[in-house]
Amino acid sequence: MIFKKSQSSFTTRNPERVQTLKKLSKKIGIQFSDFEFYHIAFVHSSYKNETPEIAEDNERLEFLGDSVLGLVAARYLFKKHPLASEGELSRIKSRIVSTPILNSISEKLSLSEFLLLGKGESKSQGKGRRKLSANLFESLIGAIYLDLGFETVEKFILKHLIEFAENPEKVESVRDYKTQLQEYSQKHFKVLPVYRMKGESGPDHAKVFRVSVKIRDEWEALGSGVSKKAAEQNAAKELFHRIKRES
What we know:
Layout: H1 10-13, H2 15-28, H3 35-41, H4 45-50, H5 59-80, H6 86-96, H7 99-108, H8 127-148, H9 150-166, H10 168-173, H11 177-188, E1 194-201, E2 208-215, E3 219-225, H12 228-246
Helix pairs in contact: 3-8, 5-6, 5-8, 5-9, 7-8, 8-9, 11-12
């Protein structure tokens, strides 16, 4: 163990919180030693601000977890791709530790179920929710590292990250192109993309929707999908990549 909390910790005074964290332990397949680390990993700053008895939120663990995650990913890629250049390794690493990937892992583990969130916050706010979910995975990594050491946390990270590191199509499947296009458009064009339905075809049980997305009068792309949401994502993907190629 790298660091030990004092015996006056929140979890020693709140056995019901320990029972909740035991469910987390079972879900992720790791036997916790010091539950206080994991309690802190799921305390949002908004909850701390509203709860006087809470002394610490998860932001420091998130910072630590982000660094540990980066190291584990870098070590894995360095060994996996001995002929890759520094630039190639950096590009792969940035993809597999991106917010959409971490959010996907966090949602798969249902980490938000264990989050203590202030009354003024919401767990369902689009981009903010995805970032919050990704941050939980990082703070959990920080907790595991402090509690059980590098070897255990490395195994945990690779268990969930390796499928993305070895399967580019898997990375592509969780990328949120609507969010990426919106952020890029706001930054570079100072406007939001505009989506419009262009039509639909096929029988009711197998419809295909067509959507256009436009940024000013300069950029436009079409996308299709089995739902309006999928069509919008595909249109955003097409336009995002086109802008990147041609700008």
